[in-house]
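Quick log. Single chain, no ligands specified.
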Amino acid sequence: MGEAALPDETGVRRVRIGGVRKFIAERMRESLAHAAQLTFHGEADLTRLLELRAGWKAAGVPIGIEDCLIAALARALSEQPEINGTSDDEAVTIHDAIHVAIAIAAPDGLKTPVLRDVRGKSLLTLAQERRDLVDRALAKKLQVSEMKGGTVTLSNLGNSRVRFFTPILNGGQLILLGVGCPQVRPAFAADGSVVARSYLGLSLTVDHRIVDGEPAARLLTAICRHIEQFSEEG
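-> predicted structure:
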């Protein structure tokens, strides 16, 4: 937010909304005004992916859970390319390449740098490029051009206690995937024994003017499947 005034005699102070926060506020209001936004919620079993991550970490391979979630999103979206797009009041533009914007809480406000052509990259390359974007966002070194051209956005609140939320679409995009925190719960194994499984809360916001409920539900189901059956090769 903007610079705060000193509190008055009642202890109340007025903070001007300006700078980056004002820009974000205007973009959020514009997004809600120009799209019929609807959010679908689901859960994916994260247990296998956590086991893979533990193996990579032990081997010194710098691949994180968010890298895998970005890959799973791109793989699912490849199965429904007709909703990898952006819209305005006149038309929908469908994109062959999948460019994933990642929401980052930087010191100077929310940033959404874009990972280009995610589908064509190895998981390790994707992880390295994401880390570079995060580091430069936190250091306030991102270029404006690096935050343009996304076809889908991922917003990750996995380090909080939020499980589901209703993320707001970014820049005319048709879909946005929100990621919540994992929750460990008991489940029945194939032999009937009780085991601990980790479930990840997912929230998929779509522009309901363009994306109907069935394809939205199909996409969220596919994302869950790609997370649960994750492999490094895709």
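The first strand starts at residue 37 and ends at 45.
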